[in-house]
Design a protein that fits this description.
The protein has about 220 residues and is an alpha+beta fold. A hairpin with a 2-residue loop joins β4 and β5.
C-alpha cells in the first residue's frame, strides 16, 4: 500500500514549536527508547551507475532506494528495506535480517529470499545480480516520532542529519561523520488516505514549505566533499 509522505525543511525554532504541539496531543511512537527519541542509522546501497541517486536528482516519478537500518547503534534488530516512491506517495517493503545476512549483502552477496516481489531480500538480490548493487553511504540522525491512529498518521522530527563514507564500518560504534551544513533538520508527515484537519492546523507555522528532501542525496553529496 502506498502512503502519502510530505517533507518540510525546518529551523530549530520551528522544530521546537511543532514538536511541543505534537507532544500535547499525540502519542509517542511505541518503539522509542526514551523521552529524547532514538537514533536511526542507515546504510544506503546503489548500483554501478548510481541510478538511485540520479533518479532522485532528476526527480524521476517512480524510483526506489535500498537500505539496511539499525536503531540506537544496536545490531539486535536489523531491518532490510526497499522504499519505492511514486510522486509524494511511498511504499516500504521491510523485513528483519540477521547480522550474517547483513554482512553478506554488504559484501555484495545475495541472501535467502522468498522469490516474491513483496520481499525486500528478493529485490536486493535482483539488484545485486543485475546492477551490481553495493553500499554507498551511511546516514544517521536523531528522531522523535508521534502517531495518530485514525488515518495511520506518523509525524517525525529528525535532527543532526549526518553522513559517513566508511560503509565498511556500518554497525560499529564511534563512526566519524560529516554533518550537513544546512538542511540537517526535517519534518516528515506520513499517512494513508487522510490526515485530520486539526493536525494540519497544528503543523502550520506560516512560512514552512514542503520540500523534495532526500537524506540519501544530501548525504551522498556531503560525504563526497
Amino acid at each position: 500500500m502506498y502512503r502519502v509522505e510530505d517533507k518540510y525543511n525546518c529551523t530549530d525554532a520551528q522544530l521546537v514549536t511543532l514538536q511541543s504541539r505534537m507532544e500535547a496531543v499525540l502519542k509517542p511512537d511505541v518503539n522509542e527508547g526514551g523521552a529524547e527519541g532514538y537514533r536511526v542509522t542507515s546504510l544506503y546501497f546503489d548500483d554501478l551507475t548510481d541510478s538511485c541517486l540520479q533518479d532522485t536528482v532528476d526527480g524521476v516519478n517512480r524510483r526506489s532506494k535500498y537500505r539496511i537500518r539499525i536503531y540506537n547503534d544496536s545490531l539486535d534488530v536489523i531491518k532490510l528495506e526497499v522504499k519505492t516512491k511514486r510522486d509524494n506517495r511511498i511504499m516500504k517493503r521491510s523485513k528483519t535480517v540477521t547480522r550474517a545476512q547483513m554482512e553478506s549483502l554488504m559484501r555484495g552477496e545475495c541472501i535467502e529470499d522468498s522469490a516474491s516481489d513483496s520481499d525486500p531480500a528478493t529485490l536486493f538480490n535482483l539488484a545485486i545480480r543485475t546492477q551490481g548493487l553495493h553500499p554507498k553511504v551511511i546516514v544517521a540522525y536523531e528522531r522523535k516520532a508521534y502517531v495518530y491512529e485514525p488515518g495511520n498518521v506518523r509525524i517525525t522530527f529528525d535532527r543532526n542529519v549526518r553522513a559517513s563514507s566508511r560503509v565498511e564500518a556500518f554497525g560499529q560504534k564511534n563512526i566519524s561523520y560529516d554533518f550537513l551544513r544546512e538542511y540537517d533538520k526535517v519534518l516528515e508527515v506520513k499517512y494513508d488516505a487522510f490526515i485530520p484537519d486539526f493536525l494540519l492546523q497544528l503543523l502550520e507555522t506560516g512560512n514552512m514549505q514542503q520540500s523534495a528532501y532526500s537524506k540519501y542525496q544530501l548525504c551522498r553529496e556531503c560525504a563526497a566533499l
